[in-house]
Amino acid sequence: SSPVQHSSAEHEMVVVANRLPVDSRTLPDGATEWVTSPGGLVTAMESVMRTVDSGAWVGWAGAPGEAPAPFEADGMSLYPVRLEQEDVERYYEGYSNATLWPLYHDVIVDPEFHRGWWDSYLAANRRFAEAAAPVAAPGGTIWVHDYQLQLVPRMIRDKRSDVRIGFFNHIPFPSVELFSQLPKRNSILRGLLGADLLGFQRESDTLNFVAAVRKLLGYHVDGTTISVPGIGAAPVREVQARTFPISIDSATVSELTEDSAIRARAEELRRDLGDPERIVLGVDRLDYTKGIRHRLKAWGELLDDGSIDPHDTVMIQVATPSRERVEAYRQLRDEVELTVGRINGEHAPLGRPAVSYQHHSFDRREMTALFMAADVVLVTALRDGMNLVAKEYVASRPDLQGVLVLSEFAGAADELRAAVLVNPHDIDELKAAILRALAMPAEEQEEAMRSLRHQVMENDVQAWAHDFLQQLEAMHTPAGDTAPA
Ligand code: ADQ
Description:
It comes from Brachybacterium saurashtrense. GO terms for molecular function: alpha,alpha-trehalose-phosphate synthase (UDP-forming) activity; phosphatase activity. This is Bifunctional alpha,alpha-trehalose-phosphate synthase (UDP-forming)/trehalose-phosphatase. By secondary structure, the protein is α/β, with parallel strands linked by helices. It has helices spanning about 40-50, 85-105, 115-130, 150-160, 175-180, 185-190, 205-215, 250-255, 260-270, 290-305, 325-345, 365-375, 390-395, 425-440, 440-460, 460-475, and strands at about 10-20, 20-25, 30-35, 55-60, 70-75, 75-80, 135-145, 165-170, 195-200, 220, 225-230, 235-245, 280-285, 315-320, 355-360, 375-380, 405, 420. Strands 5-6-4-1-7-8-9-12-11-10 form a 10-stranded mixed β-sheet, sandwiched between helices. Strands 15-14-13-16-17-18 form a 6-stranded parallel β-sheet, sandwiched between helices. β16 (about 375-380), α13 (about 390-395) and β17 form a beta-alpha-beta unit. The chain is globular, with a radius of gyration of 23 Å. The structure holds adenosine-5'-diphosphate-glucose. Adenosine-5'-diphosphate-glucose binds near residues 171 and 389.
């Protein structure tokens, strides 16, 4: 790939994430075209990037091997990081998704520990840091995202003492007892503490992190201020750990519901399902943290004991393909598909499903139509940093109808108190919650949905990003005004 022109690459704001916000598409003539992937983070950063003169995004372009040369997209400079096939297997599928992911989600499946994976995580993190450090302007801001890149803040700090460094963890941070299992746990903590501001989804995550720092590193902690001792004669640095619950682009989602084609599609969806009285919907990446098995178990039992009549109530389960090369995900897919097959075999009326199972992706418009058609949405995560599906459903219901059943173990439960909150491990409780949601009178739905909407519309992803960056700005005056030679 062609080299980055460091001297000319001085960006006030640099985002570092595992993935770039674009996907490549090969055109008929063999050329590559880049298409923006409209994730929540991209949306959040768009509004931030508009307020700075020049923004950059550092990340992997999604294909192993040689990285494309830096390029411009949507008014941002994109700096692709190279990952070889072996890095993808060890750093990404291995240490990130088979070690950290299960451990940080309270060991729903056993985390795997392999020394080779750690070496690869370290090397890949270094590559991201080396790509990010030179592109920030003197005194600029670098915002690092998520569990794949926990060593990056410190690595950047070692090269650039003049920049502000923020880190946001999108997934939970586990209790110190669980975190202590992690080989190289102290390196992870020290890596994170290279940042000036560390953001977490819920208050309990922030407290867990601070407790781990206190217990495992023995650093002085005063509330959420952590004193990181300097090496040698270097002064003590103060690092803040705070809570910033992420959100969605609420207004855009809500406005989509006014689109007449999407409204028509919502009605058509119901007709296609045989015009049931009730539609119950689940939307998740096919991930063991999402509690899909628990949900199907509850649903199957409700059909078995006759509490739900499949002639008038249909469940749609959208399960986006995810991490299909990781063993636990293959196994989950098999189990989910077996269970759906069994439920349909036993309960589906001729010619229509009891559970309509969709193992593919939908675009935003189709997703909005689904939310508009759904009388009940089930979010039954066993552990989830936030869960944006819960917020998307609320934003899709300006009509103030529909019921959200929400797991206490999703970060969203801290804010969405008017949902029907459940412990998804308790199948009886989950069944009762589903029945309660299905029976909820319109006025009660309206009251709950009004309160939920107030929360989601007021606190959107733009506000989240601005809040984080404002606090980062406020807490740290960069040491020098010039980048090191
Ligand atoms: P995820 O684990 O991916 O995110 P979530 O917050 O629910 O979980 O976000 C999933 C997104 O993908 C939603 O916007 C949803 O609409 C979309 N999606 C799901 N299935 C889809 C499909 N079939 N087609 C199209 N879109 C689909 C991680 C953490 C979360 C945290 C987010 C953001 O695990 O806890 O909320 O990051 O920080």
